[in-house]
Amino acid sequence: MPGPVSVSEAVARRVTIRAFLDRPVPGEVVKDILVRAARAPSGGNLQPWRVYALTGAPLAELKVAVKANPFGETPEYDVYPPNLWEPFRTRRFQNGEELYATIPIPREDKPARLRQLARNGEFFGAPVGIFFCLDRKLGPPQWADLGMYMQNVMLLALEHGLDTCPQEYWARYPQTVARAVNLPEDHMLFSGMALGFRDPDAPINTLRASRDPFEAWGEMVGFD
Length: 224
Known about the structure:
single chain; alpha+beta; four-stranded antiparallel beta sheet; about 35% helix
C-alpha cells in the first residue's frame, strides 16, 4: 500500500479520471475504503448511504445492458437545472471544451462526443464500479451527507494509489442499475463512481478542471 497522504495533498491531487488501466483492485482494498468513508459527517447520524461495489462478471453484465440501451431511461432527477444560468452555464461550457480538447474532439463532431459520453457506461475501463443510493423519502440534507461520503471515498482511494471518476451519468439508468444490484424499491440511485488505476499515458487524464478565484464566490467577514 502506498505511503500516507496528507489531507491537503489528497484534496489537491484528486482529479476526475476518464481512462483506467485493466488492472484489478483487491476486494479487501475496496471494502477498506468504503468502510473508512463512513466516518463522513451525517446529520442526526442517519448514515443515509447505501453502497454497492461491482467487479468481474456482474460489472461486465451491467455494461452489456447499458450498451444495449444507449438512450437510457427516464432519470429520477435532473443532474443540471434546466436553462442553466450564469455563471454556471459558462463554467459547464468551458469544462466541456477543455475536456474534449485533450482528446481532441471538435464541437462539431457530435458522433465522436456521444461516443466519448458513452464511455461512462463502461466506467472508462475501470475494474470497479460503485453505486451510491439512498432511501427515496430522505431529503436534500441527506443528499448532502451522501455527497460527503462520496468525497471521503475519493480521498481515501488516493491513499491506496487509486483514482476515481464520480458519475452522475448513471442517473440515466436507474432501472438498469436497480436490477443489477437488486436495489430495494424504496431506494433510489444517486450516482455511480469508477474506481481503479489511472492510465498515465491517456491524454484525457491530463485535464485538471479550472476553478474560479476565491473573490468570485467567497467573502471574509469580521476578520482583521
